[in-house]
Specification:
- The protein is α/β, with parallel strands linked by helices.
- The protein has eleven helices and eight strands.
- 46% of the residues are buried.
């Protein structure tokens, strides 16, 4: 982490878990545990149906509410989809874009990710843009080439002055939901490359200011080591975000001196 130049953000991704009632109960459990959360921003990305309950439950706290997806059009005949304006109207601040599960199961591409990034920024939301390689791609030695393609495509057309709204999350596919975790050195190496890509696109000042998270089985036990890396500016947390105690432990690790 480097709090001198950029925000540290711990974001939970609940995926398709918890009801609205569960959300309210989780909030009551989490809120008393947040006294040490001085230096990091906290986000919970909840299912669409839980957003109103989460907004209400975390009102007047340091927890911002995020969504897990959006459609890139403002409105239209897109049954089952949700627009950026709808999320903004509810009070959502962040939105995950391009998660590997969306790419794998719903055929999202780098190009649709780019459209969604623009839709989010235009609506005043903060996109958390996910990038990452499969185990096969890592073993082939093409991780950095793939990350370059994903980052450049996701950010195509985004002006420098809007980059302060963008968060990048490096999530190696082989470490999502598997219990496997990139070593702290592996995570920092890719995050450092992501920052180098942004530097080449926008210059050093913008690159220093962009939060680059690590996601992929970050948990209460390994968070401190991962977050101690200079280019790991937080985490996008899956399973560990479903338990208040585990999520709090990661938040506290982000507040280390």
């Amino acid at each position: 982490m480097n709090r001198r130049y950029r925000k540290t953000i711990i974001a939970g991704n609940w995926k398709m878990n918890k009801t609205a009632s569960d959300t309210r109960a989780f909030a009551e459990e989490l809120k008393p545990l947040l006294s040490k959360a001085k230096w990091c921003d906290i986000v919970l990305c909840v299912p669409f149906v839980n957003i109103p309950a989460a907004i209400k439950a975390f009102k007047d706290t340091r927890v911002a509410i995020g969504a897990q997806n959006l459609h890139f059009e403002d409105h239209g005949a897109f049954t089952g989809e949700v627009s950026a304006a709808m999320l903004k109207d509810l009070g959502v601040k962040y939105v995950i874009i391009g998660h590997s599960e969306r790419r794998q199961y719903w055929n999202e591409t780098d190009l649709t990710v780019n459209k969604k990034v623009h839709a989010a920024i235009d609506a005043g939301l903060y996109p958390i843009v996910c990038v990452g390689e499969s185990l096969e791609q890592r073993e082939l030695g093409v991780t950095m080439e793939l990350i370059n393609l994903q980052v450049k495509t996701a950010l195509a057309g985004v002006p420098a002055e809007k980059m302060r709204h963008v968060v990048i999350a490096y999530e190696p596919l082989w470490a999502i939901g598997t219990g496997k975790t990139a070593t702290s050195e592996q995570a920092n190496e890719v995050n450092e490359e992501i920052r180098a890509i942004i530097r080449r696109l926008y210059g050093a000042r913008v690159a220093r200011s962009v939060t680059v998270q690590y996601g992929g089985s970050m948990n209460a036990k390994n968070a401190e080591e991962l977050l101690a890396q200079p280019d790991v500016d937080g985490g996008l947390i899956g399973g560990a975000a479903l338990k208040a105690a585990d999520f709090t432990a990661i938040i506290n690790a982000a507040n280390q001196e």
